[in-house]
Design a protein that fits this description.
InterPro entries: NAD(P)-bd_dom_sf, RmlD-like-bd. The chain is built from seven helices and 13 strands. The protein is of the alpha/beta class. It is globular, with a radius of gyration of 19 Å. The site of NADP nicotinamide-adenine-dinucleotide phosphate has 25 residues, from helix 1, strand 2, helix 3 and strand 5.
Length: about 280
């Protein structure tokens, strides 16, 4: 089986790439964009460049494609150009595993089920480019393809297989080492998912015949405050150094406060447990 991981030099993609390399019977290729790449054997490719993308894709002819790409303020380009172009190359025999986000839910209150309606943030919202591009991506995939898995995740955390930590925990540890106290909101609820568990679940979907939309993560959701207290303790700091942030400090009425995901469905299709 030939697998292509787009974003193999990224935080999540590097773990997926490494795991697939260790999987017998799997021939894996991966792409990166900015030097230096995390692995020596990745292909440098801008997914938004149609000619080089087509050339790469036709040469690679994967059975499974993993989309672990993210481009922050340019996320819309990535979806409008890169993902749409990819969809034109993918045959019904090729499976796409697309990593999506809890940000596809902008209305209502979690925990959300897989079939709850997605909604977009107003264009002037600071997170709208990324969040709305994810909604758009899911629409393109479900309209254009049949052989796909969309895996939605909340904040991904922990050390990946090449020793990289998520930015939030990195910042927390940095501030605590400087002797600062830090504050996080207790009213923003998410389903935090460990990078290792997420990567293993992706590799299961690469190998199984399951398709559809799934929410990845543990049963338990928590606030940023609770999560950061837990992380502080894990890195040897007192929990009290993490304080409750003001609920009005970054009041943002457009982002649902509770965008926890109901993760019941994924338990029936992959063996991977998600730690909380
Ligand atoms: N991190 C989270 O908390 C989180 C939560 C929910 C969902 N997700 C989703 O998980 C996936 C992986 O996220 P991540 O945290 O691993 O992101 P990341 O560390 O920023 O990695 C994203 C990768 O995308 C590559 N990339 C960006 N623009 C590209 C382009 N035009 N052409 C080719 N490659 C390009 C980057 O390549 P270079 O490194 O070479 O520049 C990078 O390796 C994304 O789909 C994201 O939306 C992440």
């Amino acid at each position: 089986m030939k697998v292509c991981v787009f974003g193999a030099s990224g935080y999540l993609g590097a773990s997926v790439y490494q795991l697939l390399k260790e999987t017998a019977g799997t021939d894996v290729v991966g792409t990166y964009l900015k030097d230096p790449a995390v692995f020596d054997d990745l292909y440098k490719l801008d997914i938004n460049q149609p000619e080089s993308f087509s050339e790469f894709y036709k040469e690679t002819q994967p059975d499974v494609v993993v989309w672990s790409v993210m481009s922050g303020p340019y996320e819309d380009n990535l979806i409008q150009e890169g993902l749409r172009h990819l969809n034109t190359h993918v045959t019904p025999e090729t499976k796409l595993v697309y990593v999506s986000s809890d940000f596809v839910f902008a209305d209502g209150n979690g925990p959300y089920n897989e079939d709850d309606s997605m909604s977009k943030l107003p264009d002037d919202h600071k997170l709208s480019t990324y969040a709305n591009a994810k909604v758009k991506a899911e629409h393109f995939i479900t309209q254009d393809l049949t052989n796909y898995v969309i895996l939605r995740a909340g904040p991904i955390y922990g050390e990946n297989m090449v020793g990289k930590m998520d930015d939030r925990t990195d910042q927390l540890v940095y501030q605590l080492r400087l002797g600062h106290t830090v504050a996080y909101r207790d009213d923003l609820i998410r389903t935090f998912v460990h990078v290792g568990d997420m990567a293993k679940a992706i590799t299961e979907f690469v190998q199984n015949a399951r398709t559809g939309v799934y929410h990845a993560g543990p049963d338990r959701s928590m606030s940023f405050y609770e999560f950061m207290q837990q992380a502080a303790e894990q890195y040897g700091f007192h929990q009290e150094l993490v304080e409750k942030g003001s609920e009005h400090e970054e009041a943002d009425e457009e982002v649902p406060k509770n965008i926890a995901l109901n993760t019941e469905g994924i338990k029936h299709v992959v063996k991977q447990d998600f730690r909380s």
